[in-house]
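Sharing a chain and its predicted structure for anyone who wants a worked example. Both blocks are below, sequence first, tokens second.
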Amino acid sequence: MKNRSNEQLCALAQKGNTNARDLLLENNFGFIRKTANEIYFGMNLGESELSIDKDDLEQEGCIGLLDAIPRFDSSKGTKFLTYAAPSIRNAMTNLIRDAFSRYEQRMVDTKDGLAFQKIRLDEVVPGEERMLHIEAIADPIAKSPEQIYVEQEILRELYAGLDRIGRREQAYLLYRYGFTDDIEHTTIGAAIHFNLSESRAKKTEEQAMDNLWLELPWWF
């Protein structure tokens, strides 16, 4: 049975074969673990107060895979793992959302409704590091000199615009869109990082983007 494909194992599992179900979990656990790592580190859960570790995410991912088994239809030509992947990821993110909802109820907002307590607001990209980040996009093999120049100029203008908006908004956008770590974080990930409610994070982002657009030269 170990040599059977995911699709064959799923067909057996749909008929009640528990060994086939267990093999599906075993064969696809590497993908579940990889997804858990991406979410765990992408959302900085290790630095959050949600008390969620990678094992929790992996367990939810396994549940997500099992939930996909009865719904899978091999006649549509889709690979089982391709079909199950959204269910695996959704199970993990639902765990985070549930934990975050409980955490939101315990949060105490500051006077203006913001609570950027996880990082200092002056921890933005310094000039030297900023230049390295701008120059890092240069790839003489993949891009022409003209493309490199245009991308560098756009990045310089973005940083210049960020310098002209509020410090909190600047810190939020730098983190949310990966200016500092090259990872575009989700809204809920940014909310966790800055100790904000999800609704407050969305409002902060909307206001920050509005203010940034007004500072960009191509907006006029």
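Comments welcome. The mean pLDDT is 77.
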